[in-house]
Amino acid sequence: MEKRIIKDLSADELAAAMAAMGEKRHRAVQIIKWLYQKGAASFAEMTNLPRDLRERLDERFVVTAPRLVESIRSGADASQKFLLETADGALVETVLMVADGHRTICVSSQAGCALGCSFCRTGEGGFERDLTSGEILGQVLFFKSGYLPPRRRFNIVFMGMGEPLLNMRNLAAAIEILNMEAGFGLGEKRITVSTVGIPAGIRELAATDLRFSLAVSLNATTDESRRRLMPAARDLGDTLAAAREFARARRARVTLEYVLIAGENDSDEDARRLAALSSGGPFKINLIPFNEWDGCEHRRPGEDRIERFIGLLLPTAPAVTVRRSQGRDIGAACGQLRRRRLSRG
Fold first, then answer.
1. Would you state the CATH architecture of domain 67-343?
2. How far is CA 2 from the centre of its chain?
3. Residues of the chain with pLDDT under 50
4. How would you class 186 by CB atoms within 10 Å of its CB: exposed for 0-12, middle for 13-18, buried for 19 or more?
5. Which residues are known catalytic residues?
């Protein structure tokens, strides 16, 4: 019998597996605590489980962890980027960012990406596959094992490789365990899911009881310019309507992310349209000056242009922040480390 990877089971699937083995539901909670709170690497370590159960678990399941392939640390800030390898050899990027003492983990939801956004390098390496929920959570456990201070809170952003809403089942299973007190105990203020904007997926998530914040990568103010930058982008009006529905259901604002690219989406007219699109809505705007990479035709706007754009947004638009990309000297934007590794063969 081929063993299953136990971290790939959702909380309900693990409970069902325990029931099928003649065990009570609380055994699933105990196992979740061992895997995600204590970082157990084997069933033998789970000493509050009966020995017979540990042996039967070992016969049916395996505990896996990603392998570190490469890491690089920024000389300009405290960010660190890691390239991890899954059990079947897929390469996954994840980043640890530190700012003002707060630690944020940027996780990937897919190995590669099929969306082909012109400003993102992940698509250059092609799409390989969805990550399992265990592989998503494995990125968080990797940092917990040696890069996060004990008993200190941290944030998680689904802003790494891939489109989370195209991997809905595994995304939901991972967030459930991130939320669980027996798992990571993180609430909506600690988890952000960033999406290119898939209206059906946004509405599906709004109907769940999963606790997280939502960010929509807008990046343009017309459908024409948005699809030029993001070929897979859905209708702008429907995307914003779905975001409003999510905000109403959760009684929380949705972040509109906007990567500023010189000559593409940083004009005065773009700023005024963005202000109009967001005005009066349950939104906050996060401007992200483009992080340049070799071979890309796009360029980062100058500081004067960025300040001009901000000035035109205010005071019509809701709250506006500017996120400066961390790790620019180490290529910490999506896909850069993975692509470099793939190009080596």
1. Alpha-Beta Barrel (3.20)
2. 30
3. 332
4. buried
5. 93, 334
What is the DSSP pairing of strand 254-260 with strand 67-73? unpaired
pLDDT of residue 334: 59
Task: For residue 278, give both structure tokens.
Answer: 């967001």
Q: What are the domain boundaries of the chain?
A: 4-62, 67-343
Tens digits of residue pLDDT in 29-87? 999 999 999 999 999 999 999 999 999 999 999 999 999 999 988 777 778 999 999 99
- Determine the Cα–Cα distance for residues 97 and 105; give it in Å rounded to an integer: 6
4-62 topology per CATH: DNA polymerase; domain 1 (1.10.150)
Residues 6+ apart with CB under 8 A from 304: none
Contact 22, 9 (CB under 8 A): no
How far from 102 is each of 77, 227, 272, 292, 319, CA to CA, in Å?
A: 13, 35, 33, 25, 21
Evaluate the omega torsion of the peptide bond into residue 50 and state whether it is cis, within 30 degrees of 0: no
Q: Tell which residue, 4, 20, 18, 26, has the closest CA to residue 182.
A: 26
| Measured distance CA(66)–CA(138) in Å, rounded | 6
β partners of residue 256: 216, 285
